[in-house]
Structure prediction request, 302 residues.
Amino acid sequence: MIVVAGESLIDLVPQGTGALAPLLPRLGGGPYNTAVALGRLGARTSFCSRISTDGFGDALVEGLRAAGVDTALVQRGPEPTTLAVAALGADGSAGYGFYAEGSADRLFALPAAPLPSGVRALALGTCSLVLEPGASAYEALLRREAERGLFTLLDPNIRGGLIPAPDAYRARFRNWLPYVSLLKLSQEDAAWLGGSVEEWLAAGPAAVVLTRGAEGMTVRTRGGAGVDVPAVRVGVADTIGAGDTVNAALHGLAGRGALSLRSLPALSRAAWTDTLAFAARAAAITCSRPGANPPYATELAP
Prediction:
């Protein structure tokens, strides 16, 4: 089983142009999208978060269950659901304004017990590692499970408007790296964070996957191997959830026996090429339809 930990929220996506265009609520949040995508791809998945008991929260929980995601690790609370108002660029890229003060997901508490023995990987990222007090609890979860030997994936998925002290966050990011098995980030995230792939690999991760939008994606490993794959050309509705879909598609590494710090650098170039090509196909389907609507396994069958 793969556990995805982090926030869920409601994306308010404009239906048209102009400041007063109608907003359509869609289920979202980077970790939430990753969990749903994993479930749709057929991976045994559990979501670890805190979700509101309001109507939006009920819809978020139902969305997880509809995707086959286990919700036993979900905490619930009466505080409102976080809202993210999307602004779409001409190329379909999305920026966000957040309404997150006092919301339910910010009050996530570290589970008292370690994750169940059947868990093989933990994925985290996005707002959950920014907004306190939950951010410290998610960070503690990352450290605890990594120290137990669990494979970990980190997608920082930077939302600059939520980070009041960028340099302090960059320092925290560097401190997480010794606990990260696989780092996945966009080229925009990489530019914001500073540093280099080589520096990050030396700090801990066995591999770094860098997504480059329409230019495809790249992996570099601690052993020095590098693979580039092109993007799949598609008519873009928007890019919401595309990176989260890549996170989920990387679960195919499990089928190659690569969910360990020791085996990941030894993965062959052909295996990395197949894995990233699959992720590119999955992300293209997400980009082809509005909102975070990742594909099902049947849509990616050969």
